[in-house]
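seq:
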Amino acid sequence: MNIRNVCLVLGCALIAVLAVAATNQKARPFAPNVNLETGQIRVPENYTRWPTLGTWSHAKTEGEPGAKEYHVVYTQPETIDYYQKHGRYPDGAVLVKELINTKTMPMTTGEAVSHATTIKGWFVLVRDTQGRFKESKLWGDGWGWSFFNADNSVKTASTDYQVDCIACHLPAREMARADADESDKWIYSFGYPVLRK
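struct:
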């Protein structure tokens, strides 16, 4: 076989490899929990196998000691890797905030201690850098937004993210890094130490 034929065979092989890679890239879903036709979000299956980004404790406000509720936030491993390299959330990143009821009780140390009991619901965010689903009131400001009650992880209780979600994220914007991506400022990233290298 002459050099020209060798180059031709190698060139064809390279084109085939690139075509397969491109096909695989296109086949990869935007987010595992989003209906690409409607933009409907659901709680991802097996999200508890993902790494924990962070945990929040909401104190009781009635003067009693202890936590009123815990929030445990999960994301995909690749989201953490991407954020550590680029300082922003990648397109298709999914954040699941699990809301957990608590019980507070005295311990032998003389302290009141709160522990998790039952799931109260979930907040689910999906990063959208492409501006998909413009007709949906649950998508905007760079994210898909949904809240789910504990009895239904498929149908969101949210109807409009600007009414149901944004107000709780205003403090995150105020505390965000000045150099953060505008859409990422909606996220309480400062409470997720795993994102820091």
